[in-house]
Amino acid sequence: MRWFWIDRFTEFVRGRRARAVKAVTLAEEHLHDHYHGAPMMPTTLVLEGMAQTAGLLVADALDYRLQVVLAKVGGVRLDFEAVPGDTITYSAEIVELSAAGSVVRVTSRIGDRDHGEADLYYGHIESGTAVPRLFKRDEMMRWLDGLRIFDVAVNEDGTPVTRGLGPP
After folding, report:
1. Residues taking part in catalysis
2. I need a surface site. Which of 44, 80, 89, 112 has the fewest CB within 10 A?
3. Domains of the chain, first to last
4. Which residue has the higher pLDDT, 131 or 143?
Protein backbone atom coordinates (compact mmCIF):
# COMPACT_ATOMS: atom_id res chain seq x y z
CA MET A 1 0.00 0.00 0.00
CA ARG A 2 2.08 2.89 -1.24
CA TRP A 3 -0.75 5.35 -1.66
CA PHE A 4 -3.18 6.08 1.09
CA TRP A 5 -6.71 7.12 0.22
CA ILE A 6 -7.58 7.75 3.85
CA ASP A 7 -6.01 10.46 5.99
CA ARG A 8 -6.72 9.16 9.48
CA PHE A 9 -8.95 6.97 11.57
CA THR A 10 -11.53 8.65 13.80
CA GLU A 11 -12.97 5.44 15.28
CA PHE A 12 -11.67 1.89 15.47
CA VAL A 13 -13.32 -0.92 17.43
CA ARG A 14 -11.18 -4.02 16.99
CA GLY A 15 -12.95 -6.80 15.12
CA ARG A 16 -16.17 -4.80 14.63
CA ARG A 17 -16.06 -1.40 12.94
CA ALA A 18 -13.88 1.50 11.86
CA ARG A 19 -14.33 5.04 10.64
CA ALA A 20 -11.76 6.96 8.59
CA VAL A 21 -11.72 10.31 6.81
CA LYS A 22 -10.23 11.60 3.57
CA ALA A 23 -9.99 15.32 2.81
CA VAL A 24 -10.28 15.98 -0.91
CA THR A 25 -8.01 18.90 -1.78
CA LEU A 26 -7.34 20.91 -4.90
CA ALA A 27 -3.62 20.21 -4.43
CA GLU A 28 -4.06 16.53 -5.42
CA GLU A 29 -2.87 16.16 -9.01
CA HIS A 30 -5.08 13.17 -9.78
CA LEU A 31 -8.19 15.37 -9.36
CA HIS A 32 -7.27 17.35 -12.46
CA ASP A 33 -6.70 14.36 -14.73
CA HIS A 34 -10.20 12.88 -14.79
CA TYR A 35 -12.23 15.63 -16.49
CA HIS A 36 -10.39 18.68 -17.77
CA GLY A 37 -11.62 21.80 -15.98
CA ALA A 38 -13.74 19.86 -13.47
CA PRO A 39 -11.53 18.58 -10.64
CA MET A 40 -13.01 15.58 -8.82
CA MET A 41 -11.85 12.48 -7.02
CA PRO A 42 -12.17 9.49 -9.35
CA THR A 43 -14.71 6.96 -8.09
CA THR A 44 -12.07 4.22 -8.25
CA LEU A 45 -10.06 6.10 -5.62
CA VAL A 46 -13.13 6.56 -3.43
CA LEU A 47 -13.63 2.80 -3.65
CA GLU A 48 -9.95 2.30 -2.77
CA GLY A 49 -10.47 4.44 0.35
CA MET A 50 -13.38 2.18 1.29
CA ALA A 51 -11.21 -0.90 0.67
CA GLN A 52 -8.30 0.43 2.74
CA THR A 53 -10.54 1.30 5.69
CA ALA A 54 -12.18 -2.14 5.61
CA GLY A 55 -9.00 -4.07 4.81
CA LEU A 56 -7.09 -2.63 7.77
CA LEU A 57 -10.05 -3.43 10.04
CA VAL A 58 -9.99 -7.06 8.85
CA ALA A 59 -6.19 -7.38 9.02
CA ASP A 60 -6.26 -6.15 12.60
CA ALA A 61 -9.09 -8.57 13.49
CA LEU A 62 -6.81 -11.37 12.26
CA ASP A 63 -3.86 -10.00 14.29
CA TYR A 64 -2.01 -9.45 11.01
CA ARG A 65 -1.32 -13.21 10.78
CA LEU A 66 -2.85 -13.59 7.31
CA GLN A 67 -2.66 -11.42 4.25
CA VAL A 68 -5.93 -9.71 3.47
CA VAL A 69 -6.61 -9.38 -0.25
CA LEU A 70 -9.63 -7.67 -1.81
CA ALA A 71 -11.34 -10.43 -3.78
CA LYS A 72 -14.64 -8.93 -4.88
CA VAL A 73 -16.56 -5.67 -4.86
CA GLY A 74 -20.28 -6.24 -4.65
CA GLY A 75 -23.21 -3.87 -4.82
CA VAL A 76 -21.20 -0.68 -5.01
CA ARG A 77 -23.11 2.58 -5.29
CA LEU A 78 -21.78 6.15 -5.35
CA ASP A 79 -24.43 8.85 -5.61
CA PHE A 80 -22.33 11.89 -6.59
CA GLU A 81 -18.75 13.03 -7.14
CA ALA A 82 -16.34 14.04 -4.40
CA VAL A 83 -14.80 17.42 -5.24
CA PRO A 84 -12.14 19.66 -3.67
CA GLY A 85 -13.27 20.91 -0.28
CA ASP A 86 -15.18 17.72 0.54
CA THR A 87 -14.29 15.44 3.43
CA ILE A 88 -15.27 11.83 2.84
CA THR A 89 -16.07 9.75 5.92
CA TYR A 90 -15.78 5.99 5.42
CA SER A 91 -17.56 3.67 7.87
CA ALA A 92 -16.74 -0.04 7.72
CA GLU A 93 -18.45 -2.84 9.64
CA ILE A 94 -17.46 -6.49 9.55
CA VAL A 95 -20.44 -8.60 8.48
CA GLU A 96 -18.67 -11.96 8.43
CA LEU A 97 -15.19 -13.06 9.43
CA SER A 98 -13.63 -16.50 9.09
CA ALA A 99 -10.15 -17.92 8.53
CA ALA A 100 -10.78 -18.15 4.78
CA GLY A 101 -12.36 -14.78 4.13
CA SER A 102 -14.51 -11.89 5.23
CA VAL A 103 -17.31 -9.59 4.16
CA VAL A 104 -17.33 -5.93 5.13
CA ARG A 105 -20.09 -3.38 4.52
CA VAL A 106 -18.67 0.10 3.89
CA THR A 107 -20.56 3.36 3.57
CA SER A 108 -19.35 6.83 2.72
CA ARG A 109 -20.69 10.24 3.65
CA ILE A 110 -19.72 13.71 2.55
CA GLY A 111 -20.80 16.25 5.12
CA ASP A 112 -24.34 15.36 6.17
CA ARG A 113 -25.14 13.52 2.92
CA ASP A 114 -25.02 9.78 2.25
CA HIS A 115 -22.53 9.32 -0.55
CA GLY A 116 -22.20 5.61 -1.26
CA GLU A 117 -21.95 2.04 -0.08
CA ALA A 118 -20.32 -1.24 -1.04
CA ASP A 119 -20.02 -4.82 0.12
CA LEU A 120 -16.36 -5.83 0.01
CA TYR A 121 -15.18 -9.43 0.04
CA TYR A 122 -11.66 -10.29 1.19
CA GLY A 123 -9.66 -13.47 0.89
CA HIS A 124 -7.26 -14.36 3.70
CA ILE A 125 -4.02 -15.92 2.51
CA GLU A 126 -1.18 -17.54 4.44
CA SER A 127 2.26 -16.26 3.46
CA GLY A 128 4.59 -18.87 2.04
CA THR A 129 6.90 -19.54 -0.86
CA ALA A 130 4.20 -19.13 -3.52
CA VAL A 131 2.61 -16.15 -1.78
CA PRO A 132 5.19 -13.65 -0.56
CA ARG A 133 4.43 -11.44 2.43
CA LEU A 134 3.05 -8.18 1.09
CA PHE A 135 4.01 -6.01 4.07
CA LYS A 136 6.51 -6.24 6.87
CA ARG A 137 4.93 -5.99 10.31
CA ASP A 138 7.07 -3.02 11.43
CA GLU A 139 6.20 -1.15 8.25
CA MET A 140 2.48 -1.83 8.79
CA MET A 141 2.66 -0.59 12.40
CA ARG A 142 4.35 2.66 11.25
CA TRP A 143 1.58 3.18 8.68
CA LEU A 144 -1.11 2.59 11.27
CA ASP A 145 0.59 4.97 13.66
CA GLY A 146 0.68 7.60 10.90
CA LEU A 147 -3.04 7.10 10.35
CA ARG A 148 -3.53 7.76 14.08
CA ILE A 149 -5.27 4.44 14.58
CA PHE A 150 -3.80 4.02 18.06
CA ASP A 151 -5.27 7.36 19.13
CA VAL A 152 -8.80 5.98 18.73
CA ALA A 153 -8.54 2.16 18.65
CA VAL A 154 -10.35 0.21 21.35
CA ASN A 155 -11.15 -3.43 21.96
CA GLU A 156 -14.79 -4.52 22.04
CA ASP A 157 -14.80 -4.06 25.82
CA GLY A 158 -13.69 -0.42 25.40
CA THR A 159 -10.10 -0.85 26.60
CA PRO A 160 -7.49 0.93 24.46
CA VAL A 161 -5.60 -1.01 21.79
CA THR A 162 -1.87 -0.60 22.27
CA ARG A 163 0.82 -0.45 19.60
CA GLY A 164 2.45 -3.68 18.53
CA LEU A 165 -0.29 -6.16 19.46
CA GLY A 166 -0.48 -9.42 17.57
CA PRO A 167 2.19 -11.88 16.44
CA PRO A 168 5.06 -10.83 14.17
Report:
1. 34
2. 112
3. 8-146 (3.10.129.10)
4. 143
